[in-house]
């Protein structure tokens, strides 16, 4: 997905743990992991607002558009020929 959630950078700047962040935003640590690992399909504006409030930042500090063609292709998506070394 070309939209990347950059929570790690903001948490590191504030020396805040994922657990504390999740608690203050009202998410489970598992849902924060989904956001951090790029597996989220959507983010509610209310959740984005809560994240920005807790981290005292703007939505653009947390969300970044990345060209999908520039991202490394996951191994599971690669087609490997029998003639190629794996």
UniProtKB/TrEMBL annotation:
Instruction: Note one Pfam family from the annotation.
Output: HTH_26
Which superkingdom does the taxonomy of this entry point to?
A: Bacteria
List the GO molecular function terms: DNA binding
Q: Which CDD domains match?
A: HTH_XRE
HTH cro/C1-type domain location, by residue? 13-62
Q: Which InterPro entries does UniProt cross-reference here?
A: Cro/C1-type_HTH, Lambda_DNA-bd_dom_sf
Q: What is this protein called?
A: Transcriptional regulator
Give the species this sequence originates from: Arthrobacter pityocampae
Taxonomy-wise, where does this protein's organism fall, top ranks first? Bacteria, Bacillati, Actinomycetota, Actinomycetes, Micrococcales
């Amino acid at each position: 997905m070309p939209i990347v959630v950059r929570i790690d950078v903001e948490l590191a700047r504030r020396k805040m743990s994922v657990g504390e962040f999740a608690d203050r935003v009202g998410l489970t640590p598992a849902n924060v992991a989904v956001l951090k690992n790029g597996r989220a399909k959507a983010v509610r504006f209310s959740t984005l607002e809560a994240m920005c409030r807790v981290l005292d930042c703007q939505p653009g500090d947390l969300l970044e558009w990345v060209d999908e063609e520039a991202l490394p292709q996951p191994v599971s998506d690669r087609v490997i020929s029998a003639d190629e070394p794996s």
